[in-house]
Amino acid sequence: MDTFRIYKMIFIKTDSLTLIEIIKFVYLVHYKNYLMKHFYVFMLMLLGMCCKSQTYTASVSQDPEQPWMVTFTHNDWSFFDPYYDSLMLYVFIKPEQNSDGQNLWDDWGTFAAEMTWNDTVGARQATLNLKDYVFQHGGKIQDGNTISDFGYILIRKPESGNWVQTDDLMASEHGFKPFTLSVLSTSQMAVMQKSSIIDGKLRTSVRGLLTLSVYDFSGALIKHFQVKNQGQDIELNIPTRGNYILHITSEGVQETLKFRK
Description:
By secondary structure, the protein is α+β, with helices and mostly antiparallel strands. It contains three helices and 17 strands. The strands form four sheets. Strands 1, 2, 3, 4, 5, 7, 8 and 9 form an eight-stranded antiparallel beta sheet that branches. A four-stranded antiparallel beta sheet has the order 14-13-16-17. A hairpin with a 4-residue loop joins strand 13 (208-216) and strand 14. The model is unreliable at 1-16, 49-54 and 185-192 (pLDDT under 50).
């Protein structure tokens, strides 16, 4: 019932109402309309703030200095919602997606990584080292090979019931840029033979500013830091026992070592 009709009823029935009662009634009608109007405005503002603060994404990004380090980010639940189940990552590279024509893939059920929740970005994430990742079929990407694209699948893996998955996704459609794995020269190979890891400490003949990246055998990044080497032993500070891969980069020199903690 609108305000005009209410006023009309008031004036028709004035005989049965005192002046004070009429004033009270009109005040209540206006006050109710005022509250409802401002309530709607508040709810619209709140909805706008929520929509603005939440950014939905399903992306593939790379480390600028090491483009084979690929980070998968996902929180676009409208695209694919894992609910509270594990979100797994399956990766493959077709012959037409690389310059060497390698066919790289894993048996179904063998996942490259698990995408876990990252509070900082508000999304599920996983970082994969494509340089060191060993596919069950085809092995590793060869040095000098240019990767123009690759495919991946997101799999929701509930504790019970059937797995749910996306269609084949192309990384280039979600932000991936082509890269080429560099080929080590003879001098660089000589440097590699002089580096070693003893008791968790790196000994290397490479001098200057070193960029060190430690991965586990699944390709997951464990540590990434820089250190200036002047000939001293470098403590890697790996807390958990296991098998690891160390990648060293310094002014055009690249070196990869496998070690056990």
